[in-house]
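Figure 3 (text version): structure tokens given as input.
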């Protein structure tokens, strides 16, 4: 199995999850996750699948392998959306997580008052979205804007970017990332 530690750690960090948070959600011991991230051990397929699934991805997407045999459905109730964010401050809920050969990551994002995405992220993708509620400061490189209800954004995700709720209430965004490597 190829070394997966750096890729796994980057995926976890983008979700603003600690190793312990990921362990609690995935059912994999935090010490095991730590060893995997440092490439000290090679995980079993089942262990890696549990971790990657918790992070809102699939093994095929994680390794960039096309797969069309996964069962999927075209419609989702709110309860069907998979949580991949840090629910204490930022909720990221994915639509269509089990869709085969998924070409985009579609999410509802909820930011509690004062919530800030961790460090400025960058990843090879394009990203866009609409603010449904509240006021969100979005920084893309050296450009900074506060977007409010109805405003939108679209940018090259290789440019470091971050999000911050500027409202005294929850802010909500509908976003898409393609390819779904976030």
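Below: residues designed for each position.
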């Amino acid at each position: 199995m190829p070394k997966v530690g750096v890729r796994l750690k980057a995926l976890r960090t983008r979700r603003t999850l600690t190793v312990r948070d990921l362990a609690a959600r995935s059912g994999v011991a935090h010490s095991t996750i730590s060893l995997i991230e440092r490439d000290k051990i090679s995980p079993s397929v089942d262990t890696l699948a549990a971790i990657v699934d918790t992070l809102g991805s699939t093994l095929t997407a994680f390794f960039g392998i096309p797969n069309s045999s996964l069962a999927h459905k075209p419609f989702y109730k709110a309860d069907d959306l998979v949580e991949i964010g840090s629910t204490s401050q930022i909720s990221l809920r994915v639509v269509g997580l089990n869709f085969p050969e998924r070409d985009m990551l579609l999410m509802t994002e909820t930011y509690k008052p004062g919530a800030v995405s961790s460090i400025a992220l960058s990843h090879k993708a394009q990203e866009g979205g609409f603010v449904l509620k509240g006021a969100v400061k979005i920084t893309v490189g050296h450009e900074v804007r506060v977007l409010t209800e109805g405003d939108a954004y679209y940018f090259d995700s290789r440019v470091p970017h971050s999000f911050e709720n500027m409202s005294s209430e929850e802010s909500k965004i509908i976003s898409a990332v393609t390819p779904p490597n976030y």
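Helices lie at 5-14, 19-26, 30-37, 45-54, 59-63.
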